[in-house]
Amino acid sequence: MAKGKKLIKGLWSKDEINSLKKLYPRTSTRQIADQLGRSAKSVQMKASKMRLKKTKKYLKSLGRT
What ranges do the domains of the chain cover? Predict the structure, then answer.
């Protein structure tokens, strides 16, 4: 997390949701969390509720199939 940046709690803005939709399939959850100023767990939970998935190509690059 960037120095001086506070974690956000509560509701997600439309911009945050759009960013999550765009980034989640091909970006690490930790990187998204840092960018949005949220915890990795909150990003993971929101993505799960939105039924977002990592791409097969991204998972393969991590050594997962």
Answer: 14-61
What is the mean predicted confidence (pLDDT) over 13-25?
97
Residue 20 contacts residue 52 (beta carbons within 8 Å): yes
Owner of token pair 């970006």: 27
- Is the pTM value of this prediction over 0.90? no
Q: What is the DSSP string of the chain?
A: --TTPPPP-SPPPHHHHHHHHHHGGGS-HHHHHHHHTS-HHHHHHHHHHTT----HHHHHHTT--
Of residues 51, 54, 49, 50, the one with CA closest to residue 31? 54
The owner of tokens 């998972």 is 59
What count of Cα atoms within 13 Å lies in the side-chain half-sphere of residue 18? 3
Q: Kindly report the number of other CB atoms within 10 A of residue 3's CB atom.
A: 4
